[in-house]
What we know:
Layout: H1 14-33, H2 36-43, H3 47-65, H4 85-97, H5 100-103, H6 121-141, H7 164-170, H8 177-188, H9 192-201, H10 204-209, H11 217-230, H12 232-241, H13 244-252, E1 260-262, H14 265-275, H15 303-309, H16 326-336, E2 344-346, H17 353-415, H18 433-452, H19 458-465, H20 468-475, H21 481-497, H22 499-511, H23 525-537, H24 551-570
Parallel strand pairs: 1-2
Amino acid sequence: VRRIPGDPAQRRTPLGELHTVLVTILDCIAWSTMNKEQYHKLLRNDLMVRGLYKNFFLADKLLREVGCTPVAHPPIPEAAHSHHLWDAWDVTLEAVMAQLPSLLDSNLAPNPLYVYKPTRFFADHLAAFEVAIQSGAEAYSSGIDGTGGGTGAGGQENPAPEQLPTLLLCLSQTTYRVRALLLLCRYLDTGPDAVFSALYCGVTPLITKLIGSSEMLLMLIVVWLQVVRVDPTYACNELARAKAEVNFLRFMQLKEGRFKLIQDDAEASSAAATGNNNNTTTTPTTQTHPTTVSPTLSSTPNAQQYNNNNNSAASPVAVVPGFPTAAQVSSASASAAPVDPLPSFCALEGITIDRCKAISCYLLSRMMQEQKYQINRQIAAKQRQALFSHNNSSSSAQQSHHHQGMGSSHRASSSGHHQQHDHNAPPGYIPDPSIAAAAATAQFNTAVALVAAQPQPSVAISVWNTFGYSTGIQLMSSSDPNLRSWSCLFLSTLFDSFNTAKEHAAIELAKSSGLFYPLLGDSSPVVRASCVTLLGSLLGCRIDEVHCETPDDQDRRIEVDKNIMQSLVANIKDPSRSVR
């Protein structure tokens, strides 16, 4: 037994697989016997505590076999040492032991002629997880009120499958990654409780690490959609930290025929194993920075006018330093790895490319919104601090003036001379209240200056630098009304979050009147309502703050608001209530 070949750090070897299976079983036993909060605290926050507590579970099993009862704090659940998953460990160990006569030669050395056959532990656990999803979905749909986020028959909360840690571990193994992601998508779709269970179990670092895998991007977009819908602040912060907006935009910039969809599971697993062992970033498509973009709006009545007038849709690089442009990112990626002319994506049943692009627009919009909310909260906190400091300084000045007046009256009455306060006295004798007031004003002005130096919206700037403006305009020509609608909302959020993008679009709209207006006549009321939101985000500006290249640009900017309001007035009697 001590001669089992392999390395614990290499999962494809016999010893490495046994080590991985044992760690997975300990994780599953802890997950199924502890509450979610305690599990997340002890086994997901700190690596040292995680290793210690997993070893406590193993010690609890071994020491009880020889009559000892170990004690830990927090206490180990009583059901841990007799959990049925220990039987799975016995089966896996026997499967490896049965191959030992072939794995070792007569001298108990590794036999180089024998190919090790992996056990069925992970495949069986994924099959059990799929059964748990099906039974859980049936219980979810048969709830009493039918509304319930994870409540099954009788109003009881459906417990998370005990194989969930195994599923998450399979995300880091190329052999099972595709199937694990498919099962994760189905599981998260069962309700908000499933998403919270996955977050407590530690799914975030895994799907964040995989965000750069091009083959898995379609499934990852669906997974992140579920996470963002349940916990938008946490999920958007993780996406922003991973620079996911670059990957989403590159996917949105893909054109028809410039990618390959993989339908077969075996082919998808092979592609994942050969092309994404290191989780490289998505292969960028060949794209130049266009000076003209003329999308075709075949579903709009004014498509020809749109194509004739829309001749300046490209967004220049933002002037905010510290953010690489898309050209720099593409050149760096091209120099680091060979460019694949046709990136491959593992297909997901019922999910089209246009739908994933619309989801990407939604994710980018939420990322920019959440960052804008955080910046506004920081500004409000600084303003409250500045106002509090200003009020305290003013109050101190008033109290100083009050005490000085009382001191003068006391000295006058004691000496018998009713005379006024001598303002020509030395400063150290009786301080002048105006000095304190001037100091308070200077302090307040300093606080206002600090508020003016607000943090930059890094996500919106990155979107702007990665051709987000021109990409959104190109998506407006899609045949999918859902994608046309979300492209409008995506651009609207970009304009609300980044003033440079807003002013650039306003100037371009003044030069070409058919830039966004044709979508007001779209056949879909959802698209028309989204276009109203887009045009509304361009309203309102301070002319003295507008960066204009020529004096005529200021006049054009004023005319933009007039034209937008006139177009909205013309559509105020739209048949759709949402548009009105």
